[in-house]
Amino acid sequence: MAKGYPISASASASTPTVGSGALSDKGLHAGSIGLLGATVIGISCIAPAYTLTASLGPTVAAVGTQLPGIFLVGFIPMLLVALGYRELNNAMPDAGTSFTWATRAFGPWVGWMGGWGLIVATVVVLSNLAGVAVDFFYLMLAQLFGNPALAGLASNVVINVLTCLVFMVTACYISYRGMKTTKAVQYVLVTFQLVVLVWFSVAALSHIGNGTAFDALGFSADWFNPFLAPSFSAFAAGVSISIFIFWGWDVTLTMNEETKNPTTTPGRAATLTVSVIFGLYVLVAVAALMFSGIGNGELGLGNADIQGNVFAALAGPVMGPFAILMSLAVLSSSSASLQSTFVGPARTMLAMGHYRAFPTSFAAISPTYKSPGFATVVAGIVAWLFYAVMRVLSTDVLTDTILTLGMMICFYYGVTAFACVWYFRAEAFGRPRAFLLKFLAPLLGGIILAVIFVTTLYDSINPGYGSGSNIGGVGLVFILAMVLFLGGVVLMLLMRRADPTFFQGNTLRKGSSVDI
Fold first, then answer.
1. What secondary structure letter does DSSP report for 6?
2. Torsion angles phi and psi, residue 128, rounded to 5
3. Radius of gyration over alpha carbons of the chain, in Å?
4. Which candidate among 135, 140, 353, 472 keeps its CA 20 to 30 Å from the CA of 347?
5. DSSP-based three-state secondary structure for 23
6. Is residue 301 a part of any domain in this protein?
7. pLDDT for position 225
8. Phi, psi for 39 (deg, rounded to 5)
9. DSSP secondary structure of 275-298
10. Which of 377-386, 391-400, 457-466 has the lowest mean pLDDT?
11. Residue 502 lies in a domain
């Protein structure tokens, strides 16, 4: 913890002491999560089965056989940023994470936008998760009852949106009940999807050995060379997607006020989560490439018709009669992540309400479950409305929201990485460990994310970007990103006018790690 900057013991659990500018307790259930529980929730939030089925195809479309190499490039900034997050959490364990830390480093304006970036990114992914859950729910019913027509119900907009609402309400309710209920649900769902993904990979490799693969490719170490991508724009698009598939590990940090040993457990859980996920992704990516190839045939990863949902097409040919397990795995993955992803935005909005950067109603804590009840419900409502609008506007809601999400992730992760560099600037050159973890790692991670963000933002102006959905000749992904960013700026200015307390530094002050 930063010297001279402890969490205020005297501050109210609902409102900080105005004028102190210190971190303060928010009334969450302290000590309810250990290292294993935090890691499981982190893996759940990433949702490996869901992210892979939604991203394998778009990534291959961008970079071809360099899929594993692009995953590697996406992993590197995530690991570098995770190291910076860990140092910030050690110094300032606070549920606001990016919002709190960027405010401490750069002041209220950048801090507010950092928190906004996290909130909108999670709202976007909540809508995406719900969409995948709906698709696989009806696919599972079709497989279970032997009636392919049931899978087509997901294409009916009204049925789709209403089913999404059911999933959203259920996930919101579980999250509302707090971390103990969340943890119990996640142990079962996460274990199941990890087992099925390893099963799929082993089965795909067995087909290659037996000569029954669809379009077998011989393994090549060149697949791990990201610089063999067709172009820098393709490279940037692929990395933006690969960053999306690692996103979610930072939920372990937003639980820091509820974990055992809050200064160490969240950071360790984040690093462990990212490492486990990377190993799993490489295994699945290599197995899928070797089984399907990158052509545009029926099961080729280059086939545009299956790219939005790869496992729906490959599960049967790879796993045979056990294909329904993959449908259940993706359904459980998206459902589990839908629930655990509520943790991040709810606690960020809680912190912003607590420090009066948001209306104070967001600081409300459920007296029964010690969870951010009001913020959780608001996150659910907004995510469902966003999904309903996107389902009407976009011809491929998954692709467009994934690409938009990638930009938002680059933004708020980048802001937090640079906040680490600036907050620890006075002590970063004192010891080798401090230089590596508090300066060099987050700086490199932040620069990589900034480059990817700018490149992707520029490319998304093209009307053919993403699904090809556009408004007035401008790509829908770019329009979505601008609406989200500018909406945040407008909301920030309105909040500044309604209650300037936070923006004057009275509830959370700017400073550095050597403040006294």
1. P
2. -65, -45
3. 22
4. 135
5. coil
6. yes
7. 92
8. -65, -40
9. HHHHHHHHHHHHHHHHHH-SSSST
10. 391-400
11. no
Q: Which pLDDT does position 132 carry in this prediction?
A: 75
Pull the structure tokens for residue 486.
Answer: 């500018």
Distances (CA, A) of 49 to 282, 322, 446: 13, 16, 27
Containing 474, the helix (H) or strand (E) segment is: strand 474-475
> Residue 17's pLDDT band (boundaries 50, 70, 90)?
low
Domain count, the chain: 1
Measured distance CA(73)–CA(75) in Å, rounded: 5
What is the biggest distance separating any 2 CA atoms in the chain, rounded to whole angstroms?
Answer: 71
With CA atoms as reference, report the closest residue to 377 among 398, 361, 355, 357. Answer: 361
The contacts of residue 195 (CB under 8 Å, 6+ apart) are none
Q: Do 513 and 424 contact (CB within 8 A), yes or no?
A: yes
Could you read off the pLDDT of 97-125 as tens digits, one per residue? 999 999 999 999 999 999 999 998 888 77
DSSP SS3 for 46 = helix
pLDDT at 403: 75
d(CA 298, CA 313): 9
Structural contact between residues 390 and 51, judged by C-beta atoms closer than 8 angstroms: no
Q: What is the extent of the structural domain holding 296?
A: 37-392+402-451
Per-residue confidence (pLDDT) for residue 285, from 0 to 100: 93
Residue 496: inside a domain, yes or no? Answer: no
What residues pair up with 33 in beta bridges, in sequence order? 259
Residue type, 142: A
User: Do residues 355 and 16 make contact, with C-beta atoms less than 8 angstroms apart?
Assistant: yes
In a domain, 121, yes or no: yes
pLDDT, residue 3, reads 36
Where is 300: in which H helix or E strand? Answer: none
61 CB-near residues (< 8 Å, 6+ apart):
302, 304, 307
Q: Would you say 201 and 287 are in contact if contact means Cβ atoms under 8 Å apart?
A: yes
User: Using the 8-state DSSP alphabet, how is residue 8 labeled?
Assistant: B
- Residue 104 near residue 510, CB atoms below 8 Å: yes
**Span of 9-13, 291-295, 508-512 with lowest mean pLDDT:** 9-13
Quickly count: other Cβ atoms within 10 Å of residue 514's Cβ.
Answer: 14
DSSP string, 255-274: TGGGBSSTTTHHHHHHHHHH
Structure-block tokens of residue 155: 């294409």
Cα 338 to Cα 47: distance, rounded to the nearest angstrom:
9
Quote the pLDDT of residue 168: 87
Which CATH number characterizes residue 375's domain?
Answer: 1.20.1740.10
Helix axes 157-176, 323-340, angle to 10 degrees: 60
Q: Is 404 helix (H, G, I), strand (E, B) or coil?
A: helix
